[in-house]
Amino acid sequence: MYTVKTITQAIEQMAPLAWQESYDNSGLQVGDPHMDVKGVLLCLDITEAIIEEAIAKNCNLVIAHHPLLFSGLKSITGSTYVERIVMKALQHNIALYAAHTNLDNWKQGVNAKIAEKLGLQQTQILAPISQALNLLYCYAPAAMVPKIEAHLFEAGAGQVGNYFNCSFQVEGLGAFQGNEDSSPLIGAAGGPREQVAETRIEVLVPNHALIKVLAALRTAHEYEEIAYGIVPLKNKNQDLGAGMIGNLAEAMPAEAFLKHLKAALPTSCIKYTELLDRPIQRVAVCGGSGSFLLKDAIQAKADVFITSDFKYHQFFDADKQVVIADIGHYESEQFTVEIFYSILNEKFPNFAILYSERNTNPVNYFI
Ligand SMILES: [Zn+2]
Known about the structure:
By secondary structure, the protein is an alpha/beta fold. The chain has helices spanning about 5-15, 50-55, 80-90, 100-105, 110-120, 145-155, 210-220, 255-265, 295-300, 310-315, 330, 335-345, and strands at about 1-5, 25-30, 35, 40-45, 60-65, 95-100, 120-130, 135-140, 170-175, 195-205, 230-235, 235-250, 270, 280-290, 305-310, 325, 355. The strands form 4 sheets. A 6-stranded mixed sheet has the order 7-12-14-15-16-13. It has a 5-stranded mixed sheet with strand order 2-6-5-4-17, sandwiched between helices.
């Protein structure tokens, strides 16, 4: 048996909650984190029908992409659908969990899944997040360095794109003099000023791993006082951010591409702007409401930008520089559940992880 916490931690190891946007509310929304899980139901949105499905399928953990709760409830009386869902979940001991913008911002998350369905290659984050990285430096005698580095890497330091265990070292001379209360590893309390050959170690640490990495440094380093520094970087983190851009293996005429899009991400309707005089090869995508990334898509020389929730006036902003293809919010994220499934199935094989069979799209099309 696994607990709610064990299962949801597997998702957060891949897409930490610290990656979510400020307006978001990803994480456990309803339920006891220590409850044993009988089965997991995966869905995009949590509705009353989803709770009924969970009951019928003996699943007491629902994992969704969209949070049910974005802000606090003042009462839970069943007067809104949100309150009714919370009541029903509590009555049936069903835990509700959401991984939303943290899954959007993850390089292997929502947009990677869309890119995979469309067959995009050479994919990159469309709008990488900046100010999410730090440079950590510390000093230690050479003999202590391998142990310190191993602990730092284990805690999440030293990752750059496809490279891991990355660090930089430089040799130097450290000097110190302890007072009567000190207990120095080298020299004596109140003793003379010591000069010791030391190595400066530098590693990159993402914001979300900083606390864990500093704890690892304290564990591994043997000095009473550890000399270290943390420098916030303005560098963009290429592995983290909104949207994705990539290329089709071969350019396609625009109408053929729209057919391909409709088949790859099934939707009853694509709203699109004027087709351009060039074929489609470079494709930008953003699952959900992505209109804020239009400028990035144009700047990245995308031929088409696939997303949803464009407003009438925003369509004009395509301005013959890119084709906007609005495929619908639900449709753009319909395969997000596959991300949950692959994370959980790898960690917990032979455990009941079920896809919801309900379509939770609140929008219908009359065609
Ligand atoms: Zn969404």
